[in-house]
Amino acid sequence: MSTEAQRAPVPPRPTTPPTPPPTQDLAAASAGAPVPERPDTPPPAAPAPPVETTARLRPVPPAPAAAAPAVSPPPTTPPPAPPRPEQPPAATRRRPVGAVDLTPRPGAAPPPAGRAHVPYRQPQPQPYRAPHPETPAETTTRLRPIRTRHPARTATAAVCVVLGLGLIGGAATGAWLTSDSSADAAAHSAYTVGRSAWHSVPVDTLFPRTLKGDGAGPGGADRIWTRIAVAPDGGCRAALDPLLARTLGPVGCERLLRATYTDATTSSVTTVGVIFTEGDAAAMKALSTRFTGQHLGRRTDLMPRTHPVKGTAAAGFGDRQRASWTVHVLTEVPVVVFAVSGFADGRTVTDPQPADRAMAANATTAAAQAGLGHEAKGIADRIERGLRRTVTDLTEKPE
């Protein structure tokens, strides 16, 4: 208990204990009648003021309210009231809660002289101080504050979206172009393989010993041709007429291979040749368009030369014995295939015909009647098919 609490004024004590009501009042209360107030009854003592102490005291109960007017009980007779306990003496009564008795106890020394009584001062209220901020419970992760969206960031996001769409479109376009470029690469590979086929492909593959021509003869008759000679590989100048060599000049001449075949009756002979050019795909297409558009394959001054072989059925097969011919410019590979046919007995032909005209139904020349147009066309087609198949196999062969 603090000093201020000890120095607080003590409320006055009642000098006379309250006098119990007389007997008639008790009898009247028992009968249920209102009890009159006694004029000599002192008023109830006022509650003691609260005392400010530093120690935490029990709260003071509120003062009893004024007695309310009695209400008449029901007509039933209540039980007699128990006797009222006597008031304890003043020396043993408890003081009100919060009251402090500062009177000196009996036998205590008197206070020193000259010491003035210090009155009780009400403590001044202290200014409010904010409590220390509490430490957050979760301190393991430090979250990053969310910033407000800036217009520049929005513009940047839009640019990124546009660039992403552009990349996707570019990838799709690249895939489409890649497919085209893969086709161009395959064509380039076919040209590379086809140009070198003259020394990498066996001669029996280029010029088989026996060729079967099912339905290749006049009226759909079958034909069988047998190889009787193969010419050494060489250039085009000695094997071609000068005019034909100049016509093939734009694509060049890498190598020329020739072989001579005869039919099963050895009544006709045919020389077939394969010219490996130096031109690319564009040059070969241009040359093919020229031959088709200008009908160069039908001109007698562009007729290929023969390859006679001594001691065989083609021993007398020379330039004057040429009866029918065909020239075809390929565009899948850099190759020109030609074939020229004649009679095996060495007779001279004065009216040669190109193969397409000699194969016509109304053709009446000797070459057409002997089927020499079918001989030249049939052998040239089979050599061309075999060469294409070989180049395709070499191109698609895994390395």
TrEMBL record:
Residues 9-23, 41-50, 71-88, 122-134 have a biased composition (Pro residues). Residues 1-141 are annotated as: Disordered. Keywords: Membrane, Transmembrane, Transmembrane helix. The chain crosses the membrane at residues 154-177. The keyword Transmembrane applies. This is Uncharacterized protein. It comes from Streptomyces atratus.
